[in-house]
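cron nightly-structures :: item 1 of 1
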Amino acid sequence: MSEVIAPVENTNNIRYADFVKVTSPSGTYRFSTAASSITVSAVDAQPFNALGQLVRVGDVQRDIKSTANETTFTLVGIDTAMLGFVLGQQIKGSQIEAWKGFFDTNGALITTGGQGGLYQYFNGYINSFSISEQWMEEIRLFVGVITVSASSIQLILKNRIAGRYTNDNSWQFFAPGDTSMNRVAFVTNINYYFGKGASPNS
């Protein structure tokens, strides 16, 4: 079921920001592309740090129904001394969620609709990340760039089902007590004479 997003109706002037939350074993990290820190209590009691244009979110496939997809999140402008800290945060495998938030003409977050005004468009897990450096002419320094690739939960579930084997052990792992495959081992050792009649003389 799709939800009507009032801030984007009957207008061609849309102001929005991406809100991202990463939940890892070592802690929870919140950041957004907004210009100032914003707390949305319906989503999280802690504020989303304002990183503005230092955050880039890749394209996310959006369909009427829930769709398996992947996207990337890029953080630019990180102090190179912090890159070692990022490597130690067990970021791979962490849950990542992303929302869109819309703003009125005064720059205030519109809190009606969605979850306190935020509309979730991605929920998945980080499957890989890369770290690099780039030169920023504005500050005349090298800065760190972190890019993470994330798969939506639908894609992970689809791959999990696709990786099943047609044997009893695999079947019992996913559905304990299911007897659908308990004769597979027996059938694999039988030679069927296809096309041959039942009579010995046929």
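cron nightly-structures :: done
The chain has two domains: 6-161, 166-202.
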